[in-house]
Amino acid sequence: IKSRRELVLVEIESEKARPLERGGERLRRLEAAKAVVRDRESRERQLVTERDSIAREASQQRLAVDNRRFAIEQDSRSSEAELKQDQLDYATQSKLLASQEKLFSDGMISSIEIQRQRDKVKDLESRISALEDRRKILDSERSEITELRSSTRGTYATQLGSRDTELQPLKSELEAARKAVQGATSEIGRAS
Predict the structure, then answer these.
(1) Residue from 85, 92, 86, 88 nearest 126 by CA
(2) Global pTM?
(3) How far apart are CA 49 and CA 13, in angstroms?
(4) Could you give the 3-state DSSP secondary structure of residue 192?
(5) Do 37 and 174 contact (CB within 8 A), yes or no?
(6) Could you report the per-residue pLDDT of 118-169, keeping only the tens digit for each?
(7) Are 16 and 185 in contact (CB under 8 A)?
(8) How far apart are CA 48 and CA 45, in angstroms?
């Protein structure tokens, strides 16, 4: 990048030092200077467009990650509430099963009632197991989101920095090329 800028500046200086030439050569130099300006302006527009696109994409990515994180947190809170309730129900139903087992052994309740209670306890055990598995999955997703958020933030910052770094010397080159056009135009004006 520096060498390109230096080349443009050297070219401009050498053009200034040249003696006045006939009209055709002056026009050629004016057209060449205008071509350099168009090229630099085109590259500047391209870099600005890329930078703006990266900024928009970064915003959208950040929003998507935040939405996913929010959904995970909501799901996590809901699952935790269900798990606590099921654990309480399990404790209650287990105690009730123990007392019904005693009543069954004494012949005071039917086997159908004791089997219903056992089914309730087994159902609660499987729900608790499923909710605990869900908790592990959500913890894993939460970690992934944290890593994703960090890596995308760094990636977009690097890309934006790259475009800004490339824009700075390009602006100087563009300024020098515009001065060359002005110089060539005024030279043609003086010769006329």
Answers:
(1) 86
(2) 0.61
(3) 32
(4) coil
(5) yes
(6) 999 999 999 999 999 999 999 999 999 999 999 988 888 899 888 888 888 8
(7) no
(8) 5
